[in-house]
Amino acid sequence: MNIYTRKGDTGKTGVFGGKREFKDSPRIHCIGTLDEANSTIGLLRSKLGNDHEWQLNLQRIQKDMMNMMSHLARPSDSKKENPNPRPTDGAVFCEEWIDAIEAAMSAPSDYFLLPGGNEISALCHVCRTQIRRGERALVTLMHEDPECVHDYIAAYINRLSDLFFILARAEMDKFGVAEEKWNLFLYKRKKKAIQKD
Known about the structure:
This protein is mainly alpha-helical. The protein has helices at 26-48, 55-72, 90-104, 119-144, 151-174, 186-196; strands at 12-14, 20-22, 111-113, 181-184. It has one domain: Cobalamin adenosyltransferase-like (Hypothetical Protein Ta1238, Chain: A), CATH 1.20.1200. It is 59% helix and 7% strand. The strands form 2 sheets. A two-stranded antiparallel ribbon has the order 1-2. A two-stranded antiparallel sheet has the order 3-4. The chain starts with 11 loop residues before the first strand and ends with a helix. The mean pLDDT is 83.
């Protein structure tokens, strides 16, 4: 069987239920952006090496993202059931991993940081920003087909960007790379202002 079908030559692609949508539709744009982020996570994993402590969790995230993309590919009016299970505990999984990483780090972060540090840290920031772009595309899809975007998907994608921010910091902390600080988080600035008063 050939990988090419020629069916997409007119600018449309298939979604669950047999419908075809233009490739620049909010649904396909969202799925494509999350696919891009997932590919970058794959690049990150290849840079880490097979024995790295993050490997299993990152693999789980990649599989969950594939499942979420398959759900987003099914319009809410589709009669065809999606066979893939929902990773409904994704946001909790991210929160637990974030908490464990932060507990092991030398200091919390109160600042926005300049992305960079070393290659792995910088790559984590690329993942973070691609996921944020995917989240914006997800919100656009939510306006068009709100029933298609389950609450667990929106929460999971939102939490993933937080996770990759923490992974970037953890990598720098592990190797003693100094963080380049920009500004205090807004809530920290407000707290300091109140303390001065």
